[in-house]
Amino acid sequence: MLKRASTLVLRRGLSILNNDRVFRVHPSVSQALAENRPVVALESTIITHGMPYPHNLRTALEVEAIVRAEKATPATVGVIRGKVHVGLSSGELDFLARCDGSMKVSRRDLPYVVSQGLSGGTTVSATMIAAHRAGIPVFVTGGIGGVHRDGHNSLDISADLTELSRTPIAVVSAGVKSILDIGRTLEYLETQGVCVATYGPSKEFPAFFSPSSGFTSPCQVCDPDKAAELIESALSLGVQSGVLIAVPIPEEHAAAGRQMEGAIQAALEEANAKGIRGRDVTPYILQRVNELTKGKSLHANIAVIHNNAKVGSHISFALAARTKKSESQSQPSDSNIVKSESQSQPPDSNNVKSESQSQPSDSNIVVIGGINVDFIAKGKIRTDQPRKCVSVIWRRGKKHQRRHRLFGFHVFFLRKNTSGVSRLEGASTATYCAVITEAGEVSLGLGDMDIHQHITQQYVSQFKEQLLSSTLVCLDGNIPISTIRYVCSLAKEHNINVWYEPTDSEKASKPFLSDAWKSLAYTSPNLAELCTMNKTLGLQTPEVLPSSLEQLVSLAVALSRPLLEHIHCLVVTLGAHGVLVCGEHHAGSVRLQPRTDKKERKLCAVHYPALKVAARETINVSGAGDSLAGALMAGMVQGQDTDTCVRMGLLAARLSLASPHPIAHVLTAHSVDPHRVPHHSWPPPRFLWID
């Protein structure tokens, strides 16, 4: 929940719209956003109201093809039967192109159209809303609306202009049509604080069919890089207003555009004579001008849209490149770390392809929690005088992003903003400060997790559909008890697999204060947290934990036994002694995948020793448990056997122990592949029966 304004759109990461009851994001768009590849939003009123069939469908497909040819992903926005779609399939495009009685959907109309289950094409304002919620920073359209002629008396002003004043997104258009009052439109945009820039060598503001309107833009950008720089700056400032990039019609089509002016004036006079007003004026004039010019206006209109799509794709590509560059520069500059990460995995495109081919496409992990900023201070000199202690502090706030990269699955974080980042006035970003010893052990830990209280039951209930379709739900122990109970009630009713990560001894008790814990499928406590769970249930626990390995394992088995009456599997982390996996016996090990039947289970435990890490190589231990759990979950969802899953977790933990960051930079599916480690390097696991 970092509050840096630049992350609102540029760090769009994973959008929660796939979980929403109203919004639907096409898989191609979701994947592109998750991988920080360029995405271009497109409106759909041009399909439903801008052109007759089949010109509308052909134009929509051509525009999408242009975007793809320029190495970006098209995301046409439309409303279909009450659902706002960000990205449309070919069948959905055809549906909108043929749909009789479809509505023209602006910001004003969205609530009604959604509530009534209607279909329609989204205008500039509605498309901006949907694109921003999905985390798409660039939107391409033909021309925006503006102040209508005599608008100073009628107050007929397009919602496009007010949307530009309150939605931080870049709109690429050919300016506004000359049927509008261009001068007053620019004045209104200035009043609303909207940055307007002409694209190209001139500041001349275009008038859709003409490269010149007689007015100038306050700014000018000459190429995609300059446009991307402007957009990035606007988003980083957090001013919450958009940017209008005005693209002149290509010179080869300008001559035809000038011929449209006479037809536009004639159509305006006809509209006035017939009493056509408001939102019906533009569609009427477009159709009438097309008739008067015998189709020439339609060709010019299509040429403008094609050109805007090409320019917008170039800008989106440049913006994505700048975002990746700024993120890479924000990482620690340790050359060894960078070298290790680049050597341990193939380029992004190959890596994504490999993972998608080896993993089931319908596997979804829902993580209900937040992103923390970690401060790690390590003493280099052992001393009783703090003023002489030399320390180094690292900042890290990407635990969950690294876990997503390891999974290779669709991981959704339920948070309070569709760009993936919640900005809550008066609330502090979740932080954790750990002071670690020279050997890497935590000697003091302080956390501020209050912002997690905003992840309420009411908020999470909005994503019930996504919860019900998930492969695994992971609950962070920092979230409210009421939210945990709500998810557990869903798990009980709908047979959802829930993993509870207790985070610390105090929060380990949360599910066990009621019968909610009986609906958990997995939990991953350390021994102290396991004691808390038992103590909350009124069971006897030791006051002091043993020190020998034999005693630790015996205690962990004894404390796990009562919980296994309802919980399918416990993963008990034992620090330097490894991990103990407890659950149902299957094929000489513990069954990780839950059974649907309720037959009596024979219980067992398997102790896996930790991989050896030299004391000098242990930098910090604060993220080892998270890394182990994340990699183990990844193996489970991939369908790996128990040994492979646990060994993936142990490798991930070792990588994090040797990293200055809680989650190691090099943590990928490739780096935790246990088959890359010689068989003799693995300490043999120990099998135990549980009575």
Write up this protein:
The protein is α/β, with parallel strands linked by helices. It has 2 domains: 12-256 and 303-325, Indigoidine synthase domain (Indigoidine synthase fold), CATH 3.40.1790; 352-690, UDP-N-acetylmuramoyl-L-alanine:D-glutamate ligase (3-Layer(aba) Sandwich), CATH 3.40.1190.20. Strand 5 (103-105), helix 5 and strand 6 (120-122) form a beta-alpha-beta unit. The chain is elongated and about 90 Å long. The model is unreliable at 1-19, 330-362 and 381-422 (pLDDT under 50).
Put the structure in a nutshell.
39% of the residues lie in helices and 17% in strands.
Shape: elongated
Average pLDDT across residues? 80
| Continuous helix count | 23
Instruction: Quote the distance from N terminus to C terminus.
Output: 45 Å
